[in-house]
Design a protein that fits this description.
Layout lengths: L1 H5 L5 E4 L1 E5 L4 E5 L2 E5 L11 E4 L1 E5 L4 E5 L2 E4 L3 E3 L12
Antiparallel strand pairs: 1-6, 2-3, 4-5, 4-9, 6-7, 7-8
């Protein structure tokens, strides 16, 4: 499947990051990053967390996420930034 996209006439480029618009700013996520499925697609159910290994973008604006060796359209997923919560003992 990946070879079909790479051999297409349309220019493509793999990237190690993706920009996401959050409520207050643009955020760049570097691969691998986690996404949550918001619309079931193929074997991925809604609500599942998946790791994006690469991002494939075309000049037409199409963005595909490379997840577990397969390409998926980005609009089926939502980015959830990692939390950095650390609990320490309070005396």
């Amino acid at each position: 499947m990946l070879t079909k996209y790479l051999l297409s006439a349309e220019p493509s480029e793999f990237s190690d990051s993706c920009l996401f618009l959050s409520a207050f700013r643009l955020q760049r996520a570097y691969c691998p990053f986690q996404v949550v499925c918001i619309k079931a697609i193929r074997s991925i159910e809604e609500g599942e967390r998946k790791r994006v290994d690469k991002v494939l973008s075309w000049n037409t604006g199409t963005i595909l996420f490379y997840i577990q060796g397969k390409l998926y359209p980005h609009h089926h997923f939502s980015y959830r930034p990692p939390t950095q919560f650390v609990a320490t003992a309070v005396s």
